[in-house]
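Translate structure to sequence.
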């Protein structure tokens, strides 16, 4: 108890002592960083690579879809052309019949003269 009474009667005021102790207690704390600079750079490079790769993937997918659409259009045109060709070949075979040719020859004034007929041997 005697020591405590001495501290009370010291010439220094307790406010000043408390203030100085607060100043002494305030220690500059280092802010702990979760990641170092190198790790942050690696994360940024990884994010940039991921974004670049995904955009390239989307662009390739878009180009592939465009090519597939063109292929489908060309296939539909080919189908239409094949149908037209088959219709035209049917018309040609209809117009190449012997009766039709003989009828057109008679309309144009031709007649059958068997002495002028030459037989061509087949190959």
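Result:
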């Amino acid at each position: 108890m005697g020591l405590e009474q001495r501290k009370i009667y010291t010439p220094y005021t307790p406010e000043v002592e408390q203030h100085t102790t607060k100043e002494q207690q305030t220690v500059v704390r280092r802010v702990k960083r979760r990641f170092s600079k190198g790790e942050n750079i690696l994360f940024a490079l990884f994010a940039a690579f991921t974004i670049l790769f995904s955009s390239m993937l989307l662009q390739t997918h878009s180009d592939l879809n465009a090519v597939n659409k063109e292929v489908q259009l060309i296939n539909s045109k080919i189908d239409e052309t094949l149908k037209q060709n088959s219709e035209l070949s049917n018309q040609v075979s209809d117009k190449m019949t012997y009766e039709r040719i003989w009828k057109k020859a008679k309309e144009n004034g031709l007649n059958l003269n068997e002495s002028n007929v030459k037989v061509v041997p087949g190959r």
